[in-house]
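Hey all, sorry for the wall of text incoming. These are the two entities for the joint prediction.
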Amino acid sequence: MREISLSQAVNEAIAEEMRRDETVFLLGEDVAEAGTPFKVLSGLVEEFGPQRILDTPISEPGFTGIAVGAAMTGLRPIVDLMFGDFIFLVMDQLCNQAAKTHYMSGGKLTVPMVLRTNLGATRRSAAQHSQSLHALVAHIPGLKVALPSSAYEAKGLLKTAVRDNNPVVIFEDKLMYQDKAPVPEEEYLIPFGQANIVREGRDVTLIGTSSMVQVAEEAADILAGQNISAEVVDPRTIVPLDEATILGSVKKTSRAVVIDEGHQSYGVTAEIASRIAEKAFYHLDAPVQRMGAMDVPIPFSPALEDLTVPTPQSVAERAGAAVRGELFHDA
Amino acid sequence: MTHEVTMPQLGMAQDTGLIVSWLKQPGDQVKSGDVLMEVETDKSTMELEAAHDGYLTEIRAQAGENVPVGTVIAIISDSAGSVAPAPAAMLEPDVPNSEDPVVAAPVDVAPALSRADPAPPPNAHPAPSHEKVLASPKAKLAAYRRGIDLQQLVRQGARQPIHFADLETAVATAAPPTAQSALIVQVDRQPMDTFVEWASGVAGKPIEPASVWLAFATRTFRNAVDSAPADGLVVEYAQYGSDDAPSFAVDADKVVLSSIRTLEQVDRVSDLKILDLSATRLSDYRPSGTDGAPALVVGAIGTDKYSINLHFQEDRLPLNVAIALLDDLAGHAAEPMKHLL
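and here's what came out:
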C-alpha cells in the first residue's frame, strides 16, 4: 500500500468530500494561496476556487460564527483553526451556539460543521501555540471530538466528520503532519465511537490518544523487551467514547495506563481512568495510571518542553511498575 | 382514623412556611374547608384549610415556628377522644432548630430512639475483627471467590499490597487439601500387654510391642485390601515421644513375631504407617499427611485403654476397606492369641 503523510491524508479527505458534496466548503486564515502554515491545504484553492476555499481575516470568532450560521442554513463548513490554542477565541460560537442549536431548536436545526485544528507540544512554539485543549470541548455535550493518531486515521475520521450532522472538532497533532503511514487509494471511512486495538497484549492496557498512540506503541516495544505484553488501545474519538473496548481490554489485562497530551488535571486521562475505576474495578490489579502533559504552561525552552509530555520511556516505566506491583501510594 | 396536616408548598421555591397563628385549638371540631391556621411564605400569608372533617386532636408546631414543607404540623382525628401518639422525635429534648428540614420527618425517629438503646441495630455490620489487608480489587475478588484468607496470607509473610499473582503463588505453595478421614476405636490395653509378655516368654527374648503392632497391622491391612503389592507390604512404625527413627518392616505378618526384622529405610513408600503414642498420655495425632499413606495412630486413653485411630484418604483407601481394617485390628488387639491361628 502507498504511504502518504498525515497532511496529504487530510488534504485528500477534504478534496474528496468537496468533490462528493458541493455544500462542503472550507474557511480560515491563510487557507487559500498560503496553503496554511503546515501546508496541509496546498492545491485546494486551485481545484475548488476562492468561493469554496475562503481566506478570512484574522478573526477566529468571526469566521467560526459564519460557519455556524452556514451550517444551520444548509452548508457543510470546515473551519480551519490554525492553532488549537485559538479555540479559546471561539468558545461561544462552538460551545454555546454550535453545540446547543440542535437541542434548543427542538431538533429543527442541525449544525453539520467541522472544526479542524491541532494539538501537541515539542514544536518549540511556546505556551500559546503548544497546548492540547481537546478536553475543553469534550466536556461540552453536543460536540463530537476526534483525535486521529496517524495519516490513515486522519483521513478516515475527517471524512466521517464532514458527513456527520453534528458539530465535530477534530484535533490533528501538529508534530505528525509529515509522518507517513499506509493509506489506501480507495475510499474509506472510520466510524466514530469505535476504538482501535492497535496492538494486542496480555499484561497491561495502554490507552493512548492522538500522538500518544505512537508513544504507547513504542512503550509496548520497550515493555516487550522486559517480557511484559502491553495492549495498545486508540479510542479514536473521545466523544463518543468506545467504553466497551476500553473496559474489555482492561478486564483482560487488569491494568491500565491512560496517556493523553492534554494537561493531566481534569482532563481526558481523568475521564477514562475514572470510567475504568467505576466499571472495571474488580478486575483491577493495580491502580489506574494517568499520564498527561505536566500541569504547567508549555515552556519555550526545548530542554524544559520535552519534560512536559509523556515519552515511550516514561510510559514503559510506569506500565512496568504497574505490572510488577510496584505502584503503591501510601495515603 | 387520623389525618395528618402537613405544611403545604405554596410557592415553587418555597422550602419552609412560618406559622403565623392557629385559628383552631386542640380539641376543636373542624369541618373540611375550615381555616386551621395562617402560614406566611416568602411571598405572602395564606390560610390553610382542613381537608377532613373531625377534631383537631394535636398541634405539633406552634405559632412563630418556621416549618419545612411536608412536615406534619397537626392531626385531625375522627373522634375527639382519640389522641394520636406523638412521634418520638417530638419527645426528644434536643429537637434541633425547626429550620432544620428533617426535624419532624419520620426518618429521624429511628436514630432518635436508638440513641437510648445500647444494642447495635440488627443489620449493622459486625466490627471487623482483623487488621485491614491491602490488596488490589482483583486480588480481593479472586481471594473471595476461591476462599483464600488474605489475613492468613499476610500472616504467612505475603507482602502488601497483595496482587493477583501473589494469590497464584500462595495457592501453588499451599499444602494440597488433606481431606483426611478418620476412624477411631478403643480397646482394652490388658490383652495386648499380656500377649507381649507371653510371647516374650515363649520366644525366650523380649518381643517389642512394635513388632506386635507391625505384625497385626500388616495382617489386617492384607486382609482388608484386595491385592497386596508383589514386593511385599511395607509398614512403617514410629514411636512418638522417643528419639528412635521410624523403622520399616516388609511382610511382617509372614514370620513369627520374634523374627520380625525392621529396616532403617526402604526404597519405596510405606503402604501403612503406625504412629505409636501409647508411651505418652496422648490419644491421637492427626497427620497432615501429604504422601497419602493411611496412618494408624495408637494412643493412650487413661492407663487401661488404647485408642486406635485410622487416618486415611478415602480416594486411596475406600471407607469400607478402612472400616474392615480397623475392625479387624481391634479384634486382634482384643484377642491377640487369634493372630497365631
